[in-house]
């Protein structure tokens, strides 16, 4: 589908004016807020028990339930993967008996990797349904949800044009204020595009930014 642009902000700043060279340096800034178009969502849970094979069975059963939950929410099975469960053996690690009642702890991660960002956001709001099935998801710092924007190449030309036009407008105003006229471009450079979260609460909305620096000759 098309790229939805949530908002556009344009700004500029006049850099410096060197009398000797009769040059003005201006910066043109272009910013867009765009929705993320890719998400990687890991769902991690832990299962405890004293019988290793039994715990494996419980883990596989709950992973199947998570996958069914995801598919019911519109995620294709090809967009879902499951890791090999990691085994934590309290006896092997010499844990004291009072520290953990169960010998084995298995951790399993089911990961969604998809461009269906809206579907994932809806599923995230329905995670409580998994609790009703006996599945408690854990916060694993090694498996964090990541939202990305991959459509930069489509919006690059328009943003560069906006930044360049904006830089010229700033230069034109400076020339008028200083009683000069704008000449040819002496030098131009485009900064790196940056993509960041709009804020901490909405990582699925990205802020794309680029600054163009242009030097113009000035004529009396």
Low-confidence stretches: 1-5
Terminal residue distance: 51 Å
What count of helical segments does DSSP give? 4
- Helical percentage: 25-40%
Order of helices and strands: EEEHEEEHHEEHEEE
Mean of the pLDDT scores? 88
How would you describe the shape?
A: elongated
Beta-strand content bin? 35-45%
Helix/strand/pairing category: alpha+beta
The biggest beta sheet reads: 6 strands, antiparallel
What report would you give on this structure?
A hairpin with a 4-residue loop joins strand 1 (7-18) and strand 2 (23-35). It is elongated, with a radius of gyration of 27 Å. 27% of the residues lie in helices and 40% in strands. The protein is built from four helices and eleven strands. The longest helix has 26 residues, at 152-177. With 220 residues, the protein is an alpha+beta fold. The strands form two sheets. Strands 3, 4, 5, 6, 7 and 8 form a six-stranded antiparallel beta sheet that branches. Strands 1, 2, 9, 10 and 11 form a five-stranded antiparallel beta sheet that branches. It has helices at 52-72, 117-125, 128-131, 152-177, and strands spanning 7-18, 23-35, 38-49, 80-82, 86-89, 104-114, 137-138, 146-148, 181-190, 194-197, 205-219.
Topology:
Elements: E1 7-18, E2 23-35, E3 38-49, H1 52-72, E4 80-82, E5 86-89, E6 104-114, H2 117-125, H3 128-131, E7 137-138, E8 146-148, H4 152-177, E9 181-190, E10 194-197, E11 205-219
Antiparallel strand pairs: 1-2, 2-11, 3-6, 3-7, 3-8, 4-6, 5-6, 9-11, 10-11
Please name the defining characteristics of this protein.
220 residues, 6-stranded antiparallel beta sheet, single chain, 5-stranded antiparallel beta sheet
